[in-house]
Specification:
The structure is a homodimer.
Chain A: E1 3-8, H1 16-31, E2 35-40, H2 46-57, H3 63-70, H4 72-87, E3 92-94, E4 102-104, E5 113-116, H5 118-126, E6 130-134, E7 137-140, E8 144-147, H6 152-163, E9 168-173, E10 194-196, H7 197-205, H8 213-222, E11 226-230, E12 244-247, E13 264-268, E14 271-280, H9 285-295, E15 303-305, E16 313-321, H10 325-334, H11 336-339, E17 344-347, E18 350-356, H12 366-376, E19 383-387, E20 390-396, H13 400-410
Parallel strand pairs in A: 1-2, 1-9, 2-6, 3-6, 9-11, 10-12
Antiparallel strand pairs in A: 4-5, 7-8, 11-12, 13-18, 14-16, 14-17, 15-16, 18-20, 19-20
Helix pairs in contact in A: 1-4, 6-8, 7-8, 12-13
C-alpha cells in the first residue's frame, strides 16, 4: 500500500467524458490498495474565460477579486470528479483550499503556499475515501481566497504530496514523460526514466515546459518523488504506462550505469541579446549597467564583457527575456549618461541552447565537447554561461534545430532504432 | 442615510456589460449616502450549465458535491461585480457564504438559512465599502458548501437584509413590479404601489412568480420591507423607477384610501384535477385517500366531496400539482382496495383562478361577487377553495383569460386610460 497524489491538468478535465476517464484511473489506484488524493485543474479554456471576464470588467482588476473569480474553475471540476468517482463506487469528497485549509501568502494572483495541515487530510484518506482538491487555490490570512498563478496546480499537487508525506506525486499531462530533447526537433529523442530535480529545473528554465518550475523547486525542497506521465496513453490492460520519475540524486548515482553524462538538451528562443558599445573600462562600469536593470526587476542571464585592448573602452553583451526587452532598453536609455556607453544594439534573432546533466559534475570536458561539435558545423557562439550541471550557449536562432540535433548525437542521446 | 440590500438576478448579471450597469445602479445608491450590500445571482444560463454537468457526471449525484459545483456561478459574478464597482471608484469586496458566514441547515441543494452574523457585515459596510454577496449559497455545520435551491438568491437577499436590519431590500428583476394581474392577459393591469406579505404569498403560490415564495415568507417573518423593481427600465435621469413595495399590513391600513378591496388576480395552469368515483361514504374514507398522498409528499390543494344522496357512495375530487400527477395516480392505484373507489378520472385541462386581497377580511360578499361574475359568462366552477384573504376557483383552462379579465373588471382593478 502506498499513499499517492495524482494531478490532472485542464486537458484531462475538459468535459464530463474525460473526467470519467480520470475517475477510472483514480479507481485503479484505489483498487490497488493505495490511499489517494487527487489535485485537479479547471477544464481547459475555463481559466482563460474567467480571466477575460476580469479583464473586461476592469483592466486594473483587484487581484483579490480576480482570485475569487478564477478559483471557481477548479471548484467546479473537483466537485464533478468527486461525483464521477462516487458513480464508480469509489468514496470521494472535494476539499476546497479554504476547507483544508491550504494557507498561502497574501500575494493575490501569485500566492505562495506556506503551510497546510497534512494530518487531517491524511486522516480523511486513511479510511479509503479519495480526497479531491482543486489545484491553484488557497486561502490567505484574513480568510481571503488566493490563487498561485498560472500553472499553479502542479505546485498544489506537490504541496499536497509533501503534506501527506506521499510516496509519489503523479502528474498526468498531455505528454508521456520528460525527453532528452524536444521530439519534434529530434525524432530520436528518448523518454527519460529518471531525471533529478536539479536537471528538471535547468531543463524547465530553458524552455522544456513540462512542469511549472516552482513545483519542481518545491518537490526538491520537500523531497517529493514526482512522476510525469500521460493522461491519454495507457498500457494494453488499461493501466498506466510508466512516465519519467523526478527524484533526488541519491536515487540515481551508482545504480544507473547506463545513464549518460548528459541528461537532456533544451532550447529557448525567448531571450533577446543586448550590446552596449564603448563602455568605459573602469571599476563600477558593469555595476552601473546591471544595478538599474535589477532595480526594475529585469532578469539578466548571460553576460559577456569584451577585452579592452588598451582603448579604455569595452563592449558589454547580455541577454534579457524577450518580454522585458522594451523595458530594459528604456531603463538603459535613462541610465545612458551614468553608464557612458556609445550605442545600444539589440538582437532578438537568437536562441539559447543548453546541455544539462548531473554527470558533468564529475566529468571535465563537457563544455569543450559542446563548442567543438558546434564549431564543426560552423555554428557561431555569441555568449556562454555555465552552472554546475548546465552549459548554455547563445547562437543565431536559424541554427536552433541543427544545434540541438548535433548535440543530441554528440552526447550519445539518440535512441537506438529498436528502442 | 439608509441601509439597503440590492439583489440582482441572472438576467441582470448576464455578461460584463450588464454587470457594469448593475455597478452603476449600485453607485447611485452609494452616492445618495446609503450603506449598501448587494446579493447577486449567477449569469443567466450558468446555473443550468453547472447543474447539467452534475447530471451528466451521475444522474444520482451527491448533493454535497452538486452544491460545490453550482455555487461557483454566484462566486464568479460576485467577484466580477466587486471589480466593476471598484472600476467606478466605489470601494467594494465580495463575501462568500463561508466567509460571512451564512449558516444553513445541511439539507444540501435545498438548505435553509439558519443564522448569520449581521454585526460584522454591518461593520464592513459602515465604512462605505459595498459588500457583494453571492446569493443561493451558505455553509453547513462541518464547513461544507450548501445551496438554497433554485431561486434561492431572493431568499439570500432577504436574509442579508434581516441580518443587517436594512431599511429596504430591493429586488431587481426583469419586471418592474407586481401587477394586479398578468399584463399579457389584461393590458389594463395596474402596477401596485404596495402589497402585503400575505397577499404576495397568495399571489406567488398561485402563479404570479415574481419572487420566490420562501423569500416572501422570510421577509414576513423578519419584517423586511421588500421592493420589486426593474433592472432594465430607469427614470429619465438614469435613476430607478419605483417598483412595488411588499410590506406589513400596518403600512397599508388607513393611509391608503384608494386601495381596492381586491389587490390582484392570479391564475395557475399547473394543477391537475383528480376524481375518485363511488368512494364508500363512511368515516375514515377521506383519510384513506389523503394519508397515502401525504406520505408520498404530494401536495393536495382543492378538495370537493359530492353529497351522497343516500347511495352510500360519493365522488371525491381534488387537485395536485401537474408534475405530481403520475406519482399521485400510482399511489392511489396501490391504495385502491383500501379506499374502495370505482374509477380514477383525471383532467389536466383545468386552471385555478384566484382573487387575493387583505381587504376581504373586513368585507363579506367577495366570493359571491366572483361566482356571479363567472356565471354571467357561463364559466363553470369545478372546485372552490378559500383562505382568509383569497378565493380560488377551478375552471376549464379554455376560460382562463376570459375569467381573469372579467374578474379584473368586476373588482374595479382596470387602470384608467390616463394612468
Amino acid at each position: 500500500m502506498a499513499r499517492i497524489v495524482m494531478k490532472f491538468g485542464g486537458t484531462s478535465m475538459a468535459g464530463i467524458e474525460r473526467i470519467r476517464n480520470v475517475a477510472a484511473r483514480v479507481k485503479r489506484e484505489v483498487e490497488a490498495g493505495n490511499q489517494v488524493a487527487v489535485v485537479v485543474s479547471a477544464m481547459a479554456g475555463e481559466t482563460d474565460r474567467l480571466v477575460n471576464f476580469c479583464k473586461e470588467a476592469s483592466p486594473l482588476y483587484d487581484r483579490k477579486e480576480y482570485d475569487v473569480v478564477v478559483s471557481a474553475g477548479e471548484q467546479v471540476t473537483s466537485g464533478l470528479l468527486a461525483i464521477a468517482l462516487q458513480a464508480l463506487g469509489v468514496p470521494a469528497r472535494s476539499w476546497m483550499g479554504w476547507q483544508l485549509p491550504i494557507h498561502t501568502s497574501d500575494a493575490h494572483a501569485s500566492a505562495r503556499i506556506e503551510d497546510m495541515d497534512g494530518d487531517s487530510l491524511a486522516a480523511a484518506i486513511a479510511g479509503g475515501e479519495v480526497a479531491v482538491i482543486p489545484g491553484f487555490q488557497g486561502v490567505a490570512p484574513g480568510n481571503r481566497v488566493t490563487t498561485l498563478g498560472r500553472g499553479g496546480s502542479d505546485t498544489s499537487a506537490v504541496a499536497v504530496a509533501a503534506a501527506l508525506k506521499a510516496d509519489r506525486c503523479d502528474i498526468y499531462t498531455d505528454v508521456d514523460g520528460v525527453y532528452t530533447t524536444d521530439p519534434r526537433i529530434v525524432p530520436k529523442a528518448r523518454k527519460l526514466k529518471k531525471v533529478t530535480y536539479e536537471e528538471m529545473l535547468e531543463l524547465a528554465s530553458v524552455g522544456a515546459k513540462v512542469l511549472q518550475t516552482r513545483s519542481v523547486g518545491l518537490a526538491m525542497k520537500e523531497k517529493v518523488r514526482v512522476q510525469v506521465l500521460s493522461s491519454f496513453e495507457g498500457a494494453p490492460d488499461g493501466g498506466t504506462l510508466p512516465g519519467t520519475m523526478i527524484v533526488g540524486e541519491d536515487e540515481i548515482e551508482g545504480n544507473d550505469m547506463e545513464r549518460q553524462l548528459i541528461t537532456g538538451i533544451a532550447h529557448d528562443k525567448n531571450e533577446a541579446k543586448v550590446t552596449l558599445t564603448q563602455v568605459p573600462d573602469r571599476p563600477g562600469a558593469v555595476a552601473s549597467i546591471f544595478t538599474p536593470l535589477a532595480d526594475a526587476s529585469i532578469n539578466v542571464d548571460m553576460i559577456v564583457q569584451n577585452v579592452s585592448h588598451g582603448t579604455g573602452q569595452t563592449d558589454v553583451t547580455f541577454t534579457v527575456p524577450m518580454a522585458e526587452l522594451a523595458r530594459a532598453r528604456d531603463v538603459l536609455e535613462r541610465a545612458r549618461t551614468d553608464i557612458g556607453y556609445d550605442r545600444l544594439v539589440h538582437d532578438t534573432a537568437v536562441a539559447k541552447i543548453s546541455v544539462v546533466g548531473v554527470g558533468m559534475r564529475s566529468h571535465a570536458g563537457v563544455a569543450a565537447e559542446m563548442f567543438k561539435a558546434l564549431a564543426d558545423r560552423q555554428i557561431n557562439v555569441l555568449a556562454i554561461t555555465t552552472s554546475e550541471i548546465k552549459v548554455s550557449v547563445l547562437i543565431h536562432e536559424d541554427y536552433t534545430e541543427l544545434a540541438v540535433r548535433v548535440l543530441h548525437t554528440a552526447y550519445g542521446l539518440d535512441a537506438e532504432d529498436a528502442a
